[in-house]
Amino acid sequence: MNTTVRLTERSGSSSSQRKKGFVPVVIYGAGSDSQSFTADAKTINEILGKNPRAILKVEFPGSGSKNVVIQEVQRQPISKQLLHIDFQQIDMKAELVTKVAFHFTGEPVGVKNGGTQQVELYELDIRTLPDNLTASFDVDISGLDIGDQLLVSDLPTHKGWEVLTPEDTLVLRIAPPAHEEPAEGETAAEPAAANASGEDK
After folding, report:
1. What gap in Å lies between CA 175 and CA 189, rounded to an integer?
2. Which terminus of the chain has fewer Cβ atoms in its 10 Å neighbourhood, N or C?
3. How would you class 101 by CB atoms within 10 Å of its CB: exposed for 0-12, middle for 13-18, buried for 19 or more?
4. pLDDT (tens digit per residue) in 49-81
């Protein structure tokens, strides 16, 4: 994915910039001081929808460009409007620490048998070269039955990745079907019946 984000000088308040369709951004990393700009919010939203971990090229006002990744996204909780973006400048020849999202494929056997899929971990922490980054990490879970669980140590290996998440971290499990609780009347009736049979004796 080769996407270019054009930056503009920040002027006025952040709220006024957002009304014009821009989002405040900060760029840092690779031994450089942090710099503040704005970027087109529509462009950023399109990138986040396709591949939030993509390597991007930002063009600075006037001249020059750098390779970056999106490090942090802030949104308004209700409207989901973009409030702020942090870009981390990267060296394409140096490893970086980042996250990659899981993409679970296949329907688990346990779910077909009435179990419930419970996801505990959505992203994996890794260290790798920028060229080895992918949009997501495909994991086939079709073989999991009721009671089975998937740990980080069970994940398939990915060439060029050093996994930083602890191996014993739970990623996903297939829980047994939820049993209906008996009605209050039924629960209370059982001891009463037992007492009655005891008195008969």
Report:
1. 31
2. C
3. middle
4. 888 888 899 999 887 888 999 988 999 999 888
- CATH number of the domain at 97-175, please? 2.170.120.20
**Buried residues in 114-135 as b, exposed as e (16+ CB within 10 A):** ebeeeeeeeebbbebebeebee
CA atoms within 13 A on the CB side of 123: 11
* CA 192/CA 25 separation, integer angstroms: 69
Contact 41, 33 (CB under 8 A): no
Cα torsion 194, 196, 198, 201: sign? negative
- Tens digit of each residue's pLDDT (9 = 90 or more) over 91-101: 889 998 888 99
Compute the radius of gyration of the chain from its Cα atoms.
26
Instruction: Please give the backbone phi and psi of residue 159, each rounded to the nearest 5 degrees, phi first.
Output: -60, 130
Query: Domain 3-91: which CATH class?
Result: mainly beta
Give the pTM: 0.70
Written as one string, the DSSP assignment of the chain is --EEEEEEE--S-HHHHHHTTEEEEEEEETTEEEEEEEEEHHHHHHHHHH-TT--EEEEPSSS-EEEEEEEEEEE-TTT--EEEEEEEE--TTS-EEEEEEEEEES--HHHHTT-EEEE---EEEEEE-GGG--S-EEEE-TT--TT-EEEGGGSPP-TT-EE-S-TT-EEEEEEPPPPPPPPHHHHHHHHHHHHHHHHH-
